[in-house]
Amino acid sequence: MRVNTLGLLILNAVLVVGLTASPGPAQYRRMPSRAPAIGHASLPRGAPPARSVAPGRSFAPRPAVPPRTTYTTPYRSPTARPTIPPGYRFPGSAYRYPSSGYRYPGYYGPRIGTVNRGTRFVAGVNRFNRPWWRHHYGWYYGAWYNWPAYPAFWANLPGAYWLSPWWTGSTFVYENPYYLYVLYPTENPYILGVPRGLDYSQPLPVPTEAQENRTESATVNEAMACLERGRVYFKAGRYADATSEMDRAVTLLPGDRSMQEFRALTLFARGEYEAASSAIYSVLAAGPGWNWETMTGLYPDVQTYTAHLRLLEAYARAHPTEGSPHFLLGYHYLVMNEFNAAIDQLRAAAKLSPSDKVSPAIVDALSR
After folding, report:
1. What CATH number is given to the structural domain containing 340?
2. Amino acid 209: pLDDT
3. In which domain, by residue range, is 319 found?
């Protein structure tokens, strides 16, 4: 017993001495570090802590991360809109702009509420009644898609199932009140006539998909070549040459609404508002028009388009009894998404031209 008791005492003494000599947790925390930690007095505020490096080695600098590329789609590009002075009043309209400056799609002025029904709906409307739309890739960016409702005569056209749940109004028999009967030279120098693609007294012969596929490729290629030359002439300010090219293009493909709409734009740029209204009426009777990105992409800059628009507004003020400038002005306000101003102009056009059935139908659809 004495031996065991003595042994236990010796073992207890050894353990006490060992624990006393070993550093405790507090001593570990107080041990100095070779690398300064975050918040160390030797580092400036906000600087990252130094990393420990093995003797004789050094860290290679971390490669710089390239900036993230931002891709802008045509439908979201912040294209500058016509600059409108403070307090500007549209011709014949009680609507005033409270401010001025650059205009962005969907972010300017109080206007009628719009609806975006999804990307599939937008794609369907953009291609609706637009034959050969694949050939227009690169300059055609879409049509009017954010309306609260759509005219019934659009919903009854072939391939308009995208619009069928959201149509309003009634259909009508086509009659173009702005059509100007103009004779053109034919292959026979002694005979004048109206080419098929320029006769706006009749609806545009928009082909079905099967008819589009049966069109000879040589005819399509020649028409697209005329369109390409017309776009180059138009951007260069040679509007008469652009009209000549488009006359040839729509003669080859009279049912191409995009070509017909561009031909009307060349007439608008030349100040031939009656002829432009006749062509635009036929285009809108077969479906929605261009969006803002498509329109301004054909111009060298927004200022040129703004100058043309101001001339049309001045012409409409100087000719208050003519319906065609009001109709054409309403179309351009629709391109700009200025629904309130467009409704005023289309109402004036319908009042001055009672046989205009497109204007009241669009007004009814936008007023829903």
Report:
1. 1.25.40.10
2. 86
3. 119-366
